Amino acid sequence: MSAFAYDLRRTSGYLVADVRGRIVGRVESPMYGTKPDEPDAVSVRSGWISRRRRVVPVDTIQQIDRGSGVIGLRVERELLKSFL
Fold it and tell me: What is the pTM for the complete model shown?
């Protein structure tokens, strides 16, 4: 788990960039798992028409810049799991 607690409930629409600065996509919604009131990950949609989505767990997030609406990751986008 990350040393910092991030509030992922209000990140819909944020851009997500990997450790190299490459855009992964835009946050579609928070994903809940272990706790019903606290999201464990976010669903990121990779393109406007694309149906492909990636799961971004909270422990892969390096920082969230609320001013610019960008989430920076500490991993490369190829390491993120994808789903439909």
Answer: 0.86
